[in-house]
């Protein structure tokens, strides 16, 4: 087990992949990739968020693979079992997703691509890339936004404005080590990232995943997220796209989901989960998995959808 694979047990114990491989990105960065489920099944690609890893998608991987899907999950650079890279940019995230798609899907093969938080931003960054357009049949964006991430965050309980934005940037960009998972650490993580009614075992699972992320990696990517502007990527995401968020999300509040819905060329609607926080795939696993299965059934195994041209 890698030193950066969290010791999570129960429903969030890391599923055993059918096979693992390494995808090599445009700048040579090496990405840990896992494939689960039948090799010839309809494909789903999962991109996790900041400070997480493939383990974050454990519930989706298990349920989708058991239901006859081929599930591909990968560790973003510096996260999980993917080595850290000196290059931390939105463009690098897009390069990495293209590399994973090329390494795991046959030419022209279509998949549903789901991204959570920074994983959703990865999808937006890659929206205009040829490799993405070749393989994306539909997209699910979970708990994510395209810009103004620090300004809109509600992690710091102050009125919106310059003071809150400055303090939020300091908190999210802290270099401090997270340390062991203690009751205090769980309480802090729950407040910042999860809904008030989230079950203790789900808080524990998220805490172990987040605390396993090296602090240098956490800090490096926090600087990228602080200035991120992918509004142009949203407009280029022309495949059918569903948006999902929690009403108690402090990191990417529902204002982001509504802005995405207004800007997306082919939005399938916004699902707002009452009382759920930022960690939607862990907090509401059945809903997230069900939405992915619906997209596969409609856009991968169902009739070929009508495509919307860019700029339409």
3D architecture notes:
The chain has helices at residues 58-66, 90-104, 118-126, 130-135, 149-152, 162-172, 183-193, 200-211, 215-226, 231-235, 254-263, 280-283, 285-299, and strands at residues 19-24, 30-36, 43-47, 70-74, 111-116, 136-142, 241-246, 267-273. With 312 residues, it is of the alpha/beta class. The termini are far apart. 53% of the residues are buried. Mean pLDDT is 93; it is low at 305-312. One of its GO terms (molecular function) is hydrolase activity.
Short summary of the structure?
This is Alpha/beta fold hydrolase. One of its GO terms (molecular function) is hydrolase activity. The protein is of the alpha/beta class.
Number of strands: 8
Secondary-structure element string: EEEHEHEHHEHHHHHHEHEHH
Q: What is the general shape? A: globular
Q: What would you call the structural class?
A: alpha/beta
Low-confidence region ranges: 305-312
Mean pLDDT: 93
Number of helices: 13
Percentage of residues in helical conformation: 25-40%
- Percent strand equals 15-25%
Distance between the termini: 48 Å
Instruction: Compute the CA-based radius of gyration.
Output: 18 Å
Q: Main β-sheet, in a few words?
A: 8 strands, mixed
Strand line-up of the largest beta sheet: 1-2-4-3-5-6-7-8
InterPro entries: AB_hydrolase_1 (IPR000073), AB_hydrolase_fold (IPR029058), AB_hydrolase_sf (IPR050266), Epox_hydrolase-like (IPR000639)
Domain AB hydrolase-1: 44-288
Protein name: Alpha/beta fold hydrolase
Keywords: Hydrolase
